[in-house]
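Priority: medium. Attachment 1 of 2:
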């Protein structure tokens, strides 16, 4: 006949369906073979939760993290392993666990800043007035920085030449300090023009 359950002395307990083992206790907890349904009798994935406003909660104990670790391709390559972490200090992080590192790629603080990182070095941060960029920004040929609600000012390089294009209103260059405005060849070349404060033009 069919086996429905097995109970071993000082060992595991096993539950079967159609003579196929589906659940067993282990020394460290329990093991499920096949898909696990919560709120459904026909789970379509390894873990399938169903219900009104269904939620999956991962809760750390007092002073500890809550983590969700993702491993692709058996987790046998460093780039296969990622971690989503809620930290007791009050931030959320997406981290790579490859190469025995925990370098973060993204941080978020509730009601506060978000950060993007490269090799654990912060490159962009949001703040109450906009964003702060750490390092350089790069644009492909023809891609422009656009300013104004109607894209009234653009700065771009078309592959051959450089442009500052003001489409609406005046273009003003305002200098609050210093003694002159200089147009020169390269970063250290000859001056092509000098506009002296309260003075002449050369």
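Attachment 2 of 2:
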């Amino acid at each position: 006949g069919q086996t429905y359950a097995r109970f071993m002395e000082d060992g595991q307990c096993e539950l079967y369906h159609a003579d196929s083992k589906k659940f067993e206790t282990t020394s460290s907890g329990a093991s499920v073979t096949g898909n696990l349904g919560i709120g459904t009798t026909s789970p379509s994935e390894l873990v399938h939760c169903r219900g009104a406003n269904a939620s999956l909660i991962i809760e750390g104990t007092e002073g500890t993290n809550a983590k969700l670790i993702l491993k692709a391709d058996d987790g046998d390559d460093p780039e296969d392993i990622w971690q989503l972490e809620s930290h007791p200090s009050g931030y959320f992080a997406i981290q790579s666990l490859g190469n025995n590192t925990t370098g973060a790629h993204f941080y978020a603080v509730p009601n506060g800043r978000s950060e993007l990182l490269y090799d654990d070095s912060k490159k962009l941060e949001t703040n109450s007035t906009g964003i702060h960029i750490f390092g350089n920004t790069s644009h492909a040929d023809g891609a422009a920085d656009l300013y104004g609600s109607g894209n009234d000012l653009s700065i771009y390089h078309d592959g051959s030449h450089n442009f500052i294009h003001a489409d609406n209103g005046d273009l003003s260059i305002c200098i609050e300090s210093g003694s002159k405005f200089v147009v020169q060849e390269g970063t250290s070349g000859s001056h092509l023009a000098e506009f002296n404060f309260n003075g002449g033009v050369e």
